[in-house]
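Bug report (template v2)

What were you trying to do?
Predict the complex of my protein with cytidine-5'-monophosphate.

What happened?
Run completed; filing so the output is reviewed.

Input:
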Amino acid sequence: MEQLLKRAQECAQALEKQDEVLIVSHVDADGLASAAIIGCALERIEKGYEIKIVKKLDPSVFHEVSSAEAVIFTDLGSGSLDLMDDLGPLCVIADHHQPAGSSDTALHLNPHLFGFNGATDLSGAGATYLIARALGQNAQLSDLAVVGAVGDLQHVREGRLCGVNRLILDEAEKHSIVAVEKDLQAFGKQTRPIHKLLEYSSNPYIPGFTGNSEQILGFLTSLNVKLQEEGKWKKWIDLSSVERRTIVSALIQRCLAQGMPPEITQSLIGEVYTLLKEERGTALRDASEYSTLLNATARYGFEKIGVAVCMGDRESSYRKANELLLMHRENLVRGLNYVKQTGVTTLSNLQYFHAGDNILETIVGIIAGMCKNLDGVNRHLPIIGLANCDEGVKASARGTATLVKRRLNLARAMSDAANTVGGVGGGHDIAAGATIPEGTEIEFLKQLDQLVGLQLS
Ligand code: C5P
Ligand code: C5P
Ligand code: ZN
């Protein structure tokens, strides 16, 4: 940890010497939060900055970047170390993806270099926050670091943020910026009526409840919980702690009685992060809902809107982001239904679905992660979602904590399998992606199946 914080200091010192910094970040919730964190921190010390959000680092991005005075890559960069030395400008990298290649000149901050796991211990936004706090009194930005980590699902494996994330969280709690509480993990506690909260629960998928509001209403009514107030549906945050506990324990009993494995049932409960600077009852108040709102902008080409929200816009950008959020949710439901209807194909060591043009390549990874718990999907095998994209075919892979314990490393497997068919890939042990040429899907999946088999053997 000490060495990691020292590296953050070195990165900050290098940035302090610049007048203008180009921020290049990744197009997802963690990436947008990262860009906003370093943007705000540079603004506070009166440095000029420009933000560029990209899908990945390709030659065209490097070309554009080469004329800058200094660049900070956030939530990406670690996979392209070989290309940094010839770039020209000073390069700082604040990332958490598995590093590939090497660089003699880039200042590289990445948890993997200091004995931590980038999938769970620190996000891109967290790494960036460590630099921001070395640039000045920036504890106010710690909530965005939590949003980034939760956006990358870093809290899922243990039901709580751990590793370096914990240091950030402690700082956020100490400054009354984030409150930490054990609660139901369902999505929408700030914004959805209680029965809708359970109806849309996909992680975990609650058999009999997910997608079935009548069953849920019957269940809640039987518990004597008042669901409405003055004719309006109450939300989870409107319930007393006693009411919440009543629902949670009845829910757990019901899931266990129905044969849900205890480890999955247990995942109904976990740490929940409330952003205390944000207005109660809005998506921004909850780290998980906030990150989904950011994804709803980034994944549809509206990343500037998401960055503006992170940087404090609660007017036009915030309104637009909420509109995008509605559409994003519809797309997720539609995508999930698509997989439910078409099913998955199982090979020896993995299962996959190819959505073609039916699911956007920018959300196929989210869907692959969500459908882990669908009927017909094997919880014990990695799942790969494929969708068409401009460059060919996008593949998104998602594993489980148990498989990672058995040495699954999807980043390596996806990267190696993609390389054999002329594509590229990378990411984390538990979640990774790749882009491959059209028509190579079968060969790619065959290679991936073998590689995953070798990792697990
Ligand atoms: O590119 P980046 O690192 O920001 O994205 C990480 C991805 O890994 C996210 O899409 C996140 O949903 C996924 N992930 C996951 N399960 C985990 C950890 C991460 O699906 N337990
Ligand atoms: O796109 P998806 O959500 O499936 O990405 C999962 C993880 O794999 C993310 O961390 C992403 O940055 C990474 N990835 C990568 N190289 C690719 C595609 C995705 O490193 N070509
Ligand atoms: Zn990330």
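What did the reviewer find?
The chain is about 45% helix and 15% strand. The CA atoms of residues 8 and 33 lie 17 Å apart.
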